[in-house]
Amino acid sequence: MKRKSIKQIQAQAHRQDPIVMLTCYDATFARLLDEGGADMLLVGDSLGMVIQGHEHTLPVTLDEMIYHCKSVARGSQRAHIVGDLPFGSYQSSYEEAMRSGIRLMKEGGVQSVKLEGGQRVLKIVEGLSQAGVPVMGHLGLTPQSVHQLGGYKMQAKSQAAAKQLIEDALALEEAGAYALVLESVPADLAQEVTQKLSIPTIGIGAGAGCSGQVLVIYDLLGLDERFHPSFLKKYRDLSNDIKAAVQEYGNEVKTRVFPAKEHSK
Ligand code: KIV
After folding, report:
1. Which residue among 83, 112, 203, 231 is least crowded, i.e. fewest CB within 10 A of its CB?
2. Do 145 and 47 sit in the same domain of this protein?
3. Residue 72: how many CB atoms within 10 A of its CB?
4. 254 in the same domain as 228
5. Is 23 near ligand 1, meaning CB less than 6 Å away?
6. 34-53 pLDDT, tens per residue?
């Protein structure tokens, strides 16, 4: 089956049909999320935190991103796959950014790439789009700039910052971005940006006025009981389910209930 194209994603937004995006890092989840009806799978560099156990996304390499993108591409058939360009793969020079974007699409098997920032990435967005690599922008809380921002906080709360964000969003669209993630910005600002743009916005911690929503799949499933930001809705509580299953298994192994006869044929 053919994957959703950027044109289909944009048409969906124009029909006011909300876009469902989830992060995904491996083939098993890719199959489940694809069959569950996700429109877009984001191989986010959030994998640095939820898969690799780092404090932030900065250590993730381009080779690691390609590895996870390949797994997600193998596991899914229908959803559009977006791969994150990790920190350090597009900041040093225009040429490096072009090489990284092309590698992620060519080797990772994604249909588009995502990068963070406004004015400073416009030339890269333009270059990649012209080279045939569709680019999703990312404004607001941009986790790769965590040290500059001083933490994971709501962004664009002042009038000046809101004005800058609107200018950046319009400039990204002008440069060729086909969609835009808005992370941790006030809901009314996200709605205003969405109304001003003709490309879709995908929100996380940005209210209901965006063209679609994205969540980290591990967060949605409740895999980390220590993490409960206000924007997150946990649709399941799998951390407790998993611990209970492991305890049950452990008890049965210790009491020799498992494996039973039917597991030993
Ligand atoms: O890396 C990621 O998972 C992301 C989303 C949270 C938007 O960028």
Report:
1. 231
2. yes
3. 28
4. no
5. yes
6. 999 999 999 999 999 999 99
The count of domains in the chain is: 2
Using the mean position of ligand 1's atoms as its centre, give its distance from the Cα of residue 254 in Å: 41
Q: Which among 141, 215, 216, 227 is the best mutation to test ligand 1's pocket, defined by most ligand atoms within 8 Å of the CB?
A: 216
Which tens digit of pLDDT belongs to each residue from 78-129?
999 999 999 999 999 999 999 999 999 999 999 999 999 999 999 999 999 9
Residue 16 belongs to some domain of the structure: yes
Residues 134, 256 within the same domain: no
Work out whether the CA dihedral 237, 219, 61, 130 comes out positive or negative: positive
- Catalytic residue (one of 95, 107, 116, 183): 183
Select from 254, 185, 213 the least CA-distant residue to 42.
213
Residue 104 placed within a domain:
yes
> pTM above 0.90?
yes
Between the CA of 45 and the centroid of ligand 1 the distance, in Å, is: 6
Domain co-membership, 141 together with 244: no
Average pLDDT over residues 186-215: 98
Tabulate helix, strand, coil % of the chain (nearest 5).
Answer: 45, 15, 40
Residue range of the domain that includes 181: 6-234
Q: Report the Cα 188 to chain-centroid distance in Å.
A: 22
Residues 178, 72 within the same domain: yes
Token digits of residue 19? 């876009």
